[in-house]
Amino acid sequence: MTTYNGWTNRETWAVNLWYDDFTADAEQCLDNALSFHGDIESAREDAISTLAEHIEQAVRDTCGVAELPTTGLLADIIGADPLASVNWEEIARHYIEDVQVYCYGWNMPGYMPDSDPSYTLTRENAIDALIESMEHAAEANEQGFDAEAHKAELARVGQVSFGAYVYWVTEA
Q1: Environment class of residue 163 by beta-carbon count within 10 Å: exposed (0-12), middle (13-18) or buried (19+)?
Q2: Is residue 88 located within the same domain as residue 162?
Q3: Are both 86 and 116 inside the same structural domain?
Q4: N or C: the chain end with fewer CB closer than 10 Å?
Q5: How many domains does the structure of the chain reveal?
Q6: DSSP 3-state assignment of 16?
Q7: Nearest alpha-carbon partner for 68 in 58, 85, 88, 83
Q8: Range of the structural domain that residue 107 is part of
Q9: Is 113 left (phi over 0), alpha (psi -120 to 50) or beta?
């Protein structure tokens, strides 16, 4: 397969070169997809598809491609759709793969986890979700709970024991 500077073709390379500000959009697409999918790979694929559509629309709107003639000399010279050969999913994948995702959960040592891990885009959100789970466990078992100490331990080493469970957070 012929490539251009590591991209599918020259058109894809050029679009990525000129439009390099989709990082926030990639984070939003992945964050939305994570809320609908139980596993990270499905979420990434869904986010890539959504972001590819968004990038294509943004580029077409910016370039005014819809206003180009579809017949006549200009259409024959530049083609009816000069962006038709752009690999939008390749550009979207480039952005989605750069988004850091954190995985978090809890389980009883020596046993399989009670549930699948969860995912979020920030370590702080993962730690906050774990602290909330520990607070609920503490209330249910009428245990004392020092949220700040456990939060500091999770931030420092990525795991903490509470009751019979180990709560953890890691990069996905």
Answers
A1: middle
A2: no
A3: no
A4: N
A5: 2
A6: helix
A7: 83
A8: 102-171
A9: beta
**Predicted TM-score of the model (pTM):** 0.79
**Three-state DSSP state, 67:** helix
Helix axes 88-96, 23-36, angle to 10 degrees: 80
pLDDT one digit per residue (tens) for the chain, 172 residues: 668 999 999 999 999 998 878 899 999 999 999 988 878 999 999 999 999 999 999 998 888 766 666 777 766 776 667 788 899 999 999 999 999 999 999 999 999 887 889 999 999 999 999 999 999 999 998 999 999 999 999 999 999 999 999 999 999 8
Instruction: Assign 133 to helix, strand or coil.
Output: helix
Beta-carbon-side half-sphere exposure of residue 155 (alpha carbons within 13 Å): 11
